[in-house]
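Hey everyone, long-time lurker, first post.

I ran two proteins through the pipeline my lab uses and got sequence/structure pairs for each. Pasting them in order. The first:
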Amino acid sequence: MERYEITKKAGILGILGNIFLLMIKGSIGFMTHSQAMIADSANSAGDIFASLMTWIGNKIASEPQDDSHNFGHGKAEYIFSLFISLSMLAVAFKLLYDSIFSLIFGSQMTFSWLLVIVCIITIVVKIALYFYTSNLAKKCQNILLEANRKDHRNDCIVTTFTLISVLASLISWNWVDGLVGIGISIWIAYTGLKILIESYNVLMDRSIDEDTKNLILQIVQNCEQVQKISHFYTTPVGYQYMVILTISVDGNLSTFESHALADQLEKEISKLDKVYQTQIHVNPV
């Protein structure tokens, strides 16, 4: 449960931080007609949605297994990370359209030192959130936290380019504003697509990674009584995997002995971080 409590706190902190940034970026962006800052504020609105999805998805995923959900509710993490990715793609395409329009027909941006101050505040806040969330994502192995970590990192990069476009307007390079808006929208779309693919793969029951698979096979093969591994199946259960194996052992072993061997291997394999549960079927040779 600690894993879910940590994710919950990160989600709430992300919501509060992004609401603050949305308010200052949106008001200054529209006041100065900066397309890059407006794009940045829209990105913050998407961040609020992402943090909200993190909180809701984490709450559902923390529910224990029941009669209707025998393996728990862990896949909620991936369903809600899918929502985050779709929202990022929607925001990216809208910003791309507005930025191209601004680049073709000219930017109406008015320079203000408030834009510079807002950019600096945003970068400082997002760097702090990035390091905080990165530490939690490594500890918890949670795709929702990972999505938020990448989002905070992207925001630092996005706002840095927004700052460049603001400073460029000092020498009347207003075209940089539209160009930066295009770059921001492409970056948001790229990140959203990566999260979409990762979430889709898990929801489509992607197999466990090769390194963990080889580690499991090594554990089984190191057991002298195991003569053959007939089948190896894995299916995701939230951020972990259900492992199903069929092994062949000496047919002269008693039923008790063969099942005791299987129980021992199941316990050893289930100690791995990525393994939710292990089931081993025994065939006599």
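...and the second, right after it:
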Amino acid sequence: MLLWEVMDITQIINSPIFIAFFIGLFSSLHCVSMCGSIIGTLSLSLKPDIRQNKSKMFAFIFSYNFGRIFSYVLAGFIIGFIESIVTLPLGDEHGHRLLQILSSLIITGAGFYIAGWFPQFAYIEKTGSRFWKAIEPYGRKLIPVASLNQAFLFGMVWGWIPCGLVYTALALAATSGDALTAAATMFTFGLGTLPAVMSSGIVSSFISRLSRLQNTKRTIGILLVLVAIFNV
């Protein structure tokens, strides 16, 4: 009975859904540096009575992030559907294994990037720049944000901003086996980023100082590399 329990725990730890959550957590410093300024700009565009009411402010920030995570889930569903078609000629086993290795290499690259050892990884963000240029004007039309629905819609646009770590999570989602699991993988990735991004307005100075510490970056980078090893 104990052996089966250990096997179940191992399967959970090695699952893309579980790994994606920790990638989200480990990439928090990057998320805050990229997304914290966006939240700050949007928050300042809100009406004074909303900014001065903490509960209302929290609702708007949550709506931004809920929209962002919704886009991650949609992207995960799309990548999972594409994966099932692309790997069809190779067979489920060989196709999945190939994607698993590729995913681990990308996660390793992200780890080295955060640690400061592989700045060239940032070039991966250029893959989505053309799509971002097409939808970014729609986001600008939603500013200033006047309602929670607008905040959600802006968050949906914001979710498609080119980000190497989001693409890393998508590479992992592609190994999940089906579109629904890939969508769930991106959902847990989004949940992993949520604590840091949601609290960026409250503890932004502390997180900013933390993000500048080279030892912190290296520790997180090494943790990501370990995640990649477990994923193989």
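Reply from user beta_strand_b:
Welcome! Quick read of the second one: Residues 28-231 form one domain. The first helix runs from residue 2 to 13.
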